Amino acid sequence: MNNLNITYTFHPVGQGLFCSGKISMDSKDFRWVYDCGTVSSASLLDTQIKDLTRKTKNKRVDIAFISHFDKDHISGLVKLINTMEVGAIVLPYLPLWQRLLIAFEENRGVNSSLTQFLISPTRYVEKKSPENIPILIYVQSGSESGRNADMKTIPQHMEENFSLPVEADIAPIEDEDLEGIRNSAYILPPGSPIKINKTCELIPYNDSELTIPPGKRFKKEVEKLKSKLLSSPSQETLLYIKNNYDKTFGSNSRKRNVISLFLYIGPLKRELLKRRIISIGPIFSCISCRNNCWRTNINKPSILYTGDGYLHTTEKQDALLADTLGKERVDSIGFFQVMHHGAKKNWKHVLSSRINPLYSIFCSDPKRKKPGHPNPEVVKDFLPYSPIQVDKDRGFTARLH
Predict the structure, then answer these.
(1) pTM across the whole model
(2) Taking the CB of the first residue and of the last residue of the chain, which one, N or C, has fewer CB atoms within 10 A?
Protein backbone atom coordinates (compact mmCIF):
# COMPACT_ATOMS: atom_id res chain seq x y z
CA MET A 1 0.00 0.00 0.00
CA ASN A 2 1.39 3.38 -1.02
CA ASN A 3 1.81 6.26 1.42
CA LEU A 4 -1.28 8.27 2.21
CA ASN A 5 -1.48 11.88 0.98
CA ILE A 6 -4.23 14.34 1.91
CA THR A 7 -4.91 17.78 0.41
CA TYR A 8 -7.24 20.46 1.81
CA THR A 9 -8.15 23.49 -0.35
CA PHE A 10 -10.21 26.59 0.45
CA HIS A 11 -11.07 28.37 -2.78
CA PRO A 12 -11.15 32.21 -3.05
CA VAL A 13 -14.82 32.99 -3.75
CA GLY A 14 -15.36 36.04 -1.52
CA GLN A 15 -18.41 36.00 0.76
CA GLY A 16 -19.23 32.32 0.52
CA LEU A 17 -17.70 28.90 0.95
CA PHE A 18 -16.17 26.49 -1.55
CA CYS A 19 -13.81 23.83 -0.22
CA SER A 20 -12.35 20.76 -1.85
CA GLY A 21 -9.87 18.06 -0.97
CA LYS A 22 -8.48 14.71 -1.94
CA ILE A 23 -7.18 11.52 -0.38
CA SER A 24 -4.45 9.98 -2.54
CA MET A 25 -3.17 6.42 -2.25
CA ASP A 26 -2.58 3.39 -4.45
CA SER A 27 -2.22 5.78 -7.42
CA LYS A 28 -5.87 6.86 -7.02
CA ASP A 29 -7.49 10.09 -5.81
CA PHE A 30 -10.69 10.23 -3.78
CA ARG A 31 -12.02 13.81 -4.04
CA TRP A 32 -14.65 15.70 -2.11
CA VAL A 33 -16.24 19.14 -2.14
CA TYR A 34 -17.73 20.86 0.90
CA ASP A 35 -20.21 23.58 -0.09
CA CYS A 36 -20.08 25.47 -3.37
CA GLY A 37 -21.52 28.96 -3.23
CA THR A 38 -21.00 32.71 -2.95
CA VAL A 39 -22.94 35.97 -2.78
CA SER A 40 -19.96 37.79 -4.27
CA SER A 41 -19.49 37.73 -8.05
CA ALA A 42 -20.59 34.43 -9.63
CA SER A 43 -17.53 34.64 -11.87
CA LEU A 44 -15.32 33.94 -8.84
CA LEU A 45 -17.08 30.63 -8.30
CA ASP A 46 -17.11 29.80 -12.02
CA THR A 47 -13.36 30.34 -12.18
CA GLN A 48 -12.73 28.07 -9.20
CA ILE A 49 -14.98 25.29 -10.52
CA LYS A 50 -13.14 25.45 -13.85
CA ASP A 51 -9.80 25.38 -12.03
CA LEU A 52 -10.83 22.33 -9.99
CA THR A 53 -12.07 20.59 -13.15
CA ARG A 54 -8.79 21.33 -14.94
CA LYS A 55 -6.72 19.89 -12.08
CA THR A 56 -8.83 16.74 -11.83
CA LYS A 57 -7.72 14.07 -14.31
CA ASN A 58 -11.03 12.23 -14.62
CA LYS A 59 -13.23 15.33 -14.05
CA ARG A 60 -14.71 13.60 -11.03
CA VAL A 61 -15.74 14.47 -7.46
CA ASP A 62 -16.56 11.42 -5.34
CA ILE A 63 -18.70 13.19 -2.73
CA ALA A 64 -20.16 16.71 -2.57
CA PHE A 65 -21.27 17.75 0.93
CA ILE A 66 -23.90 20.47 1.44
CA SER A 67 -23.88 22.08 4.87
CA HIS A 68 -27.19 23.95 4.44
CA PHE A 69 -29.25 25.75 1.84
CA ASP A 70 -28.23 29.42 1.89
CA LYS A 71 -27.16 30.92 -1.44
CA ASP A 72 -23.61 31.60 -0.30
CA HIS A 73 -23.15 27.86 0.23
CA ILE A 74 -25.03 26.22 -2.69
CA SER A 75 -25.25 28.73 -5.57
CA GLY A 76 -22.70 26.74 -7.60
CA LEU A 77 -24.00 23.23 -6.90
CA VAL A 78 -25.88 22.75 -10.18
CA LYS A 79 -22.91 24.03 -12.20
CA LEU A 80 -20.61 21.67 -10.29
CA ILE A 81 -22.69 18.54 -10.99
CA ASN A 82 -23.10 19.57 -14.63
CA THR A 83 -19.36 20.23 -15.04
CA MET A 84 -17.94 17.25 -13.15
CA GLU A 85 -19.10 13.71 -12.50
CA VAL A 86 -20.28 13.52 -8.88
CA GLY A 87 -20.55 10.13 -7.19
CA ALA A 88 -22.71 11.17 -4.22
CA ILE A 89 -24.24 14.23 -2.60
CA VAL A 90 -24.43 14.24 1.20
CA LEU A 91 -26.79 16.72 2.88
CA PRO A 92 -28.69 17.13 6.15
CA TYR A 93 -31.96 15.22 6.49
CA LEU A 94 -34.95 17.50 6.99
CA PRO A 95 -38.64 16.58 6.64
CA LEU A 96 -40.62 18.29 3.85
CA TRP A 97 -42.40 20.74 6.14
CA GLN A 98 -39.04 21.94 7.51
CA ARG A 99 -37.56 22.31 4.02
CA LEU A 100 -40.59 24.43 3.05
CA LEU A 101 -39.90 26.69 6.02
CA ILE A 102 -36.54 27.48 4.41
CA ALA A 103 -38.20 28.35 1.09
CA PHE A 104 -40.66 30.69 2.85
CA GLU A 105 -37.93 32.32 4.91
CA GLU A 106 -36.05 33.07 1.70
CA ASN A 107 -39.24 34.42 0.04
CA ARG A 108 -38.78 32.19 -3.01
CA GLY A 109 -41.53 31.47 -5.56
CA VAL A 110 -42.62 27.98 -6.60
CA ASN A 111 -40.52 28.10 -9.77
CA SER A 112 -37.28 29.19 -8.12
CA SER A 113 -34.42 26.70 -8.20
CA LEU A 114 -34.16 26.71 -4.40
CA THR A 115 -37.86 25.90 -3.89
CA GLN A 116 -37.77 23.11 -6.48
CA PHE A 117 -34.64 21.71 -4.85
CA LEU A 118 -36.16 21.86 -1.37
CA ILE A 119 -39.42 20.17 -2.38
CA SER A 120 -37.46 17.10 -3.50
CA PRO A 121 -33.65 17.35 -3.62
CA THR A 122 -33.33 13.84 -5.09
CA ARG A 123 -35.68 14.46 -8.02
CA TYR A 124 -34.25 17.92 -8.64
CA VAL A 125 -30.73 16.51 -8.99
CA GLU A 126 -31.95 13.68 -11.22
CA LYS A 127 -33.66 16.20 -13.49
CA LYS A 128 -30.72 18.62 -13.62
CA SER A 129 -28.11 15.95 -14.25
CA PRO A 130 -29.81 13.05 -16.11
CA GLU A 131 -26.52 11.72 -17.50
CA ASN A 132 -24.73 11.86 -14.15
CA ILE A 133 -27.15 11.00 -11.36
CA PRO A 134 -25.34 10.98 -8.01
CA ILE A 135 -26.39 8.93 -5.01
CA LEU A 136 -28.03 11.20 -2.41
CA ILE A 137 -27.25 10.44 1.23
CA TYR A 138 -29.29 12.24 3.88
CA VAL A 139 -27.66 12.54 7.30
CA GLN A 140 -29.96 12.23 10.29
CA SER A 141 -29.93 14.79 13.03
CA GLY A 142 -28.79 13.54 16.41
CA SER A 143 -32.15 14.65 17.82
CA GLU A 144 -34.10 12.27 15.57
CA SER A 145 -35.19 8.84 16.71
CA GLY A 146 -36.78 5.76 15.23
CA ARG A 147 -34.70 5.66 12.04
CA ASN A 148 -31.73 3.64 13.19
CA ALA A 149 -33.26 0.18 12.86
CA ASP A 150 -32.42 -2.12 9.97
CA MET A 151 -29.40 -0.13 8.81
CA LYS A 152 -27.15 -2.15 6.53
CA THR A 153 -23.70 -1.93 4.98
CA ILE A 154 -23.42 0.03 1.74
CA PRO A 155 -24.67 -2.12 -1.18
CA GLN A 156 -21.86 -3.57 -3.31
CA HIS A 157 -23.16 -1.98 -6.52
CA MET A 158 -22.55 1.47 -5.06
CA GLU A 159 -18.81 0.88 -5.01
CA GLU A 160 -18.66 1.81 -8.69
CA ASN A 161 -19.64 5.39 -7.79
CA PHE A 162 -16.34 6.03 -6.03
CA SER A 163 -12.63 6.11 -6.88
CA LEU A 164 -11.62 4.13 -3.77
CA PRO A 165 -13.55 1.51 -1.76
CA VAL A 166 -16.21 3.10 0.47
CA GLU A 167 -17.97 1.66 3.54
CA ALA A 168 -20.94 3.23 5.32
CA ASP A 169 -23.92 2.03 7.34
CA ILE A 170 -26.79 3.34 5.24
CA ALA A 171 -30.30 2.23 4.30
CA PRO A 172 -32.70 3.14 1.48
CA ILE A 173 -34.74 6.19 2.42
CA GLU A 174 -38.46 5.69 3.04
CA ASP A 175 -39.70 9.28 2.68
CA GLU A 176 -41.81 9.63 -0.48
CA ASP A 177 -40.62 13.20 -1.04
CA LEU A 178 -36.95 12.18 -0.91
CA GLU A 179 -37.09 8.98 -2.93
CA GLY A 180 -35.58 9.11 -6.39
CA ILE A 181 -36.98 7.73 -9.61
CA ARG A 182 -33.90 5.49 -9.80
CA ASN A 183 -33.85 4.53 -6.10
CA SER A 184 -30.72 6.60 -5.51
CA ALA A 185 -31.48 8.02 -2.02
CA TYR A 186 -30.25 6.68 1.31
CA ILE A 187 -30.15 7.68 4.98
CA LEU A 188 -27.08 7.78 7.23
CA PRO A 189 -27.63 7.58 11.02
CA PRO A 190 -26.15 10.20 13.39
CA GLY A 191 -22.41 10.01 13.97
CA SER A 192 -21.84 7.22 11.42
CA PRO A 193 -18.54 7.44 9.55
CA ILE A 194 -18.00 7.05 5.82
CA LYS A 195 -14.75 5.06 5.58
CA ILE A 196 -12.46 5.42 2.58
CA ASN A 197 -10.25 2.47 1.67
CA LYS A 198 -10.05 1.53 5.38
CA THR A 199 -7.59 4.40 5.91
CA CYS A 200 -9.62 7.62 6.33
CA GLU A 201 -12.99 8.50 7.75
CA LEU A 202 -15.47 11.24 6.88
CA ILE A 203 -17.97 11.96 9.66
CA PRO A 204 -20.87 14.30 8.80
CA TYR A 205 -22.82 15.71 11.75
CA ASN A 206 -26.28 17.17 11.18
CA ASP A 207 -27.02 19.92 13.68
CA SER A 208 -30.53 21.05 12.79
CA GLU A 209 -33.14 22.52 15.07
CA LEU A 210 -36.06 24.94 15.03
CA THR A 211 -35.93 28.12 17.06
CA ILE A 212 -39.76 28.19 16.99
CA PRO A 213 -41.83 24.95 17.11
CA PRO A 214 -43.98 24.54 13.98
CA GLY A 215 -47.23 23.28 15.50
CA LYS A 216 -49.32 20.29 14.37
CA ARG A 217 -51.55 22.26 11.99
CA PHE A 218 -48.73 23.35 9.68
CA LYS A 219 -47.29 19.83 9.53
CA LYS A 220 -50.71 18.37 8.72
CA GLU A 221 -51.32 20.82 5.88
CA VAL A 222 -47.96 19.98 4.29
CA GLU A 223 -48.62 16.24 4.64
CA LYS A 224 -52.08 16.61 3.10
CA LEU A 225 -50.69 18.40 0.05
CA LYS A 226 -47.47 16.38 -0.29
CA SER A 227 -48.58 14.38 -3.35
CA LYS A 228 -49.69 17.52 -5.16
CA LEU A 229 -46.40 19.25 -4.37
CA LEU A 230 -44.39 16.31 -5.71
CA SER A 231 -46.41 15.67 -8.86
CA SER A 232 -47.06 19.22 -10.07
CA PRO A 233 -46.25 21.98 -7.59
CA SER A 234 -48.24 25.14 -8.28
CA GLN A 235 -48.09 28.68 -6.96
CA GLU A 236 -51.62 28.22 -5.61
CA THR A 237 -50.66 25.16 -3.54
CA LEU A 238 -47.53 26.83 -2.23
CA LEU A 239 -49.43 30.03 -1.34
CA TYR A 240 -51.99 27.98 0.58
CA ILE A 241 -49.22 26.40 2.65
CA LYS A 242 -47.53 29.79 2.99
CA ASN A 243 -50.72 31.27 4.47
CA ASN A 244 -50.77 28.48 7.04
CA TYR A 245 -47.12 29.21 7.72
CA ASP A 246 -47.92 32.91 8.34
CA LYS A 247 -50.77 31.98 10.68
CA THR A 248 -48.44 29.69 12.61
CA PHE A 249 -45.32 31.87 12.76
CA GLY A 250 -46.36 35.38 11.77
CA SER A 251 -45.44 37.04 8.50
CA ASN A 252 -42.00 38.39 9.44
CA SER A 253 -38.95 36.74 7.90
CA ARG A 254 -37.11 35.88 11.11
CA LYS A 255 -35.15 32.66 10.74
CA ARG A 256 -36.66 29.59 12.35
CA ASN A 257 -34.21 27.03 11.00
CA VAL A 258 -30.76 26.56 12.49
CA ILE A 259 -29.07 24.08 10.19
CA SER A 260 -25.54 23.05 9.37
CA LEU A 261 -23.87 19.83 8.37
CA PHE A 262 -20.47 19.74 10.07
CA LEU A 263 -17.83 17.48 8.53
CA TYR A 264 -14.78 15.87 10.12
CA ILE A 265 -12.18 14.25 7.84
CA GLY A 266 -9.03 12.51 9.00
CA PRO A 267 -6.91 9.34 8.80
CA LEU A 268 -7.95 6.39 10.94
CA LYS A 269 -4.35 6.22 12.14
CA ARG A 270 -2.07 9.27 12.20
CA GLU A 271 1.01 7.19 11.44
CA LEU A 272 -0.37 6.49 7.95
CA LEU A 273 1.09 9.86 6.96
CA LYS A 274 4.66 8.60 6.81
CA ARG A 275 6.78 11.66 6.10
CA ARG A 276 4.90 14.12 8.34
CA ILE A 277 5.26 17.19 6.14
CA ILE A 278 2.83 20.02 5.52
CA SER A 279 3.36 22.25 2.51
CA ILE A 280 1.20 25.35 2.26
CA GLY A 281 0.26 27.34 -0.79
CA PRO A 282 -0.14 28.89 -3.20
CA ILE A 283 -1.33 32.29 -1.93
CA PHE A 284 -2.75 33.06 1.47
CA SER A 285 -2.45 35.51 4.32
CA CYS A 286 -2.01 34.69 8.00
CA ILE A 287 -4.00 37.31 9.92
CA SER A 288 -1.75 37.11 12.97
CA CYS A 289 1.60 37.69 11.22
CA ARG A 290 0.47 38.92 7.76
CA ASN A 291 2.82 36.35 6.35
CA ASN A 292 2.98 32.98 4.61
CA CYS A 293 3.81 30.94 7.70
CA TRP A 294 3.89 27.15 7.54
CA ARG A 295 4.61 24.17 9.77
CA THR A 296 5.91 20.64 9.48
CA ASN A 297 4.05 19.14 12.45
CA ILE A 298 1.25 16.87 11.29
CA ASN A 299 0.39 15.23 14.57
CA LYS A 300 -2.86 17.07 13.84
CA PRO A 301 -3.69 16.00 10.26
CA SER A 302 -7.50 16.19 10.38
CA ILE A 303 -9.94 18.92 9.37
CA LEU A 304 -13.28 20.11 10.73
CA TYR A 305 -15.64 22.01 8.42
CA THR A 306 -18.49 23.84 10.15
CA GLY A 307 -20.45 25.67 7.43
CA ASP A 308 -22.65 28.21 9.22
CA GLY A 309 -22.96 25.99 12.28
CA TYR A 310 -23.43 27.15 15.85
CA LEU A 311 -20.91 26.30 18.55
CA HIS A 312 -21.92 29.18 20.79
CA THR A 313 -22.86 27.15 23.88
CA THR A 314 -21.15 24.42 25.89
CA GLU A 315 -24.06 22.09 25.06
CA LYS A 316 -23.58 22.58 21.31
CA GLN A 317 -19.84 22.04 21.60
CA ASP A 318 -20.26 18.89 23.71
CA ALA A 319 -22.77 17.36 21.29
CA LEU A 320 -20.28 17.63 18.42
CA LEU A 321 -16.85 17.40 20.04
CA ALA A 322 -17.43 15.03 22.97
CA ASP A 323 -20.49 12.97 22.05
CA THR A 324 -19.95 12.60 18.27
CA LEU A 325 -16.22 12.93 17.57
CA GLY A 326 -14.54 12.08 20.86
CA LYS A 327 -11.25 13.27 22.33
CA GLU A 328 -8.87 11.39 19.99
CA ARG A 329 -10.42 12.86 16.84
CA VAL A 330 -10.68 16.37 18.30
CA ASP A 331 -7.01 16.22 19.33
CA SER A 332 -6.12 15.43 15.71
CA ILE A 333 -7.85 18.53 14.23
CA GLY A 334 -5.15 20.71 12.68
CA PHE A 335 -7.41 22.66 10.32
CA PHE A 336 -10.60 24.37 11.46
CA GLN A 337 -13.05 26.29 9.26
CA VAL A 338 -14.40 29.00 11.57
CA MET A 339 -18.21 28.98 11.65
CA HIS A 340 -20.35 31.33 9.57
CA HIS A 341 -17.43 33.29 8.09
CA GLY A 342 -16.36 34.37 11.59
CA ALA A 343 -19.74 35.62 12.86
CA LYS A 344 -19.85 36.44 16.57
CA LYS A 345 -23.28 34.86 17.19
CA ASN A 346 -21.99 31.39 16.21
CA TRP A 347 -18.98 31.46 18.52
CA LYS A 348 -18.04 31.18 22.19
CA HIS A 349 -14.70 32.35 23.57
CA VAL A 350 -13.49 28.98 24.91
CA LEU A 351 -14.00 27.25 21.55
CA SER A 352 -10.60 28.10 20.03
CA SER A 353 -8.58 26.62 22.90
CA ARG A 354 -10.85 23.59 23.09
CA ILE A 355 -10.18 22.67 19.45
CA ASN A 356 -6.60 23.99 19.46
CA PRO A 357 -6.01 23.78 15.67
CA LEU A 358 -2.79 24.51 13.82
CA TYR A 359 -4.73 26.75 11.41
CA SER A 360 -8.11 28.45 11.71
CA ILE A 361 -9.59 29.46 8.36
CA PHE A 362 -11.97 32.40 7.87
CA CYS A 363 -13.84 32.41 4.53
CA SER A 364 -15.43 35.79 3.81
CA ASP A 365 -15.06 39.15 2.10
CA PRO A 366 -13.76 41.53 4.80
CA LYS A 367 -14.30 44.51 2.47
CA ARG A 368 -18.09 44.06 2.54
CA LYS A 369 -19.57 46.38 5.17
CA LYS A 370 -22.51 44.04 5.66
CA PRO A 371 -22.54 41.53 7.26
CA GLY A 372 -19.05 42.52 8.47
CA HIS A 373 -17.35 39.13 8.54
CA PRO A 374 -15.14 38.18 10.22
CA ASN A 375 -15.97 39.72 13.57
CA PRO A 376 -12.85 41.24 15.25
CA GLU A 377 -13.55 39.51 18.57
CA VAL A 378 -13.67 36.11 16.89
CA VAL A 379 -10.44 36.81 15.00
CA LYS A 380 -8.75 37.91 18.23
CA ASP A 381 -9.78 34.68 19.94
CA PHE A 382 -8.16 32.62 17.16
CA LEU A 383 -4.93 34.67 16.93
CA PRO A 384 -2.86 31.96 18.69
CA TYR A 385 -4.07 29.44 16.09
CA SER A 386 -2.69 30.92 12.84
CA PRO A 387 -5.90 32.51 11.52
CA ILE A 388 -6.03 32.48 7.73
CA GLN A 389 -8.19 34.86 5.69
CA VAL A 390 -9.63 33.34 2.52
CA ASP A 391 -11.37 36.00 0.42
CA LYS A 392 -11.79 37.02 -3.24
CA ASP A 393 -8.08 36.96 -4.00
CA ARG A 394 -6.46 34.53 -1.62
CA GLY A 395 -7.11 30.84 -1.17
CA PHE A 396 -5.48 28.29 1.12
CA THR A 397 -4.13 24.82 0.37
CA ALA A 398 -2.45 22.36 2.72
CA ARG A 399 -0.81 19.17 1.46
CA LEU A 400 -0.06 16.41 3.96
CA HIS A 401 2.24 13.64 2.80
Answers:
(1) 0.91
(2) N
